[in-house]
Amino acid sequence: MKIISIISGALCIIALLFIVWFVRNLYIVPAVESVAFFESTTQLQQLFLDDGQELNEQLNEQQNEQDTKQGAKQGIMRVVYFWQNNCPCDQFTKPHFLLLIKQYQHLASNIVFYLAPVDDSAVSEDLQNVEQLPAKLLDRVREDVKATPSVGIWNAKGELIYFGPHSLGYVCNNDTSLVKKVLDALLNKQTVSASTVMGDGCFCPVEAAAN
Predict the structure, then answer these.
(1) Which of 72, 104, 168, 190 shows its CA 20 to 30 Å from the CA of 181?
(2) Using an 8 Å Cβ cutoff, are 152 and 46 in contact?
(3) Residues β-bridged to residue 147
(4) DSSP H helices in 46-116
């Protein structure tokens, strides 16, 4: 009887561990992939050209007021961070995104950073102060974002210049950051066009994380 009790207890523990593992993988941690393909769609390309016109006009008015004070005449660039709170890859990328905001804070009248959560989970506390992409615009492109972490960059004319990962590889910092390279190139009036990119690193499919 003692042996049977021991076996029964062990089986119960194994069953409990299996249930915990299954629930954790099904509902908490999404599937992680090492490669993702980022393709610009018409919706992404026109995000700040069509329904975003009202937003553009508002931002341009604010920037023109700032230009008048500073004597500068540069356009507004938009950086949109497509994010999933339950994606472990996003957790690794988040510190670099917050660092970029600080690094370009002195150019706040020229560069606007947006957070665009594509899943239904709550935004983490450390990202709540980041301006969120208006829901009307996010709804237009939500289905076009296939994996996160990903970033879209639009130039001062509202043209999509870059859509892809924050960096190439698993390490995301100033040395590997594609976002920083694109922003610096645009600020230096260089021509940039990389709206379709194959990413190599850590990514979560949006469909897997949103279900």
Answers:
(1) 72
(2) no
(3) 205
(4) 53-70, 88-103
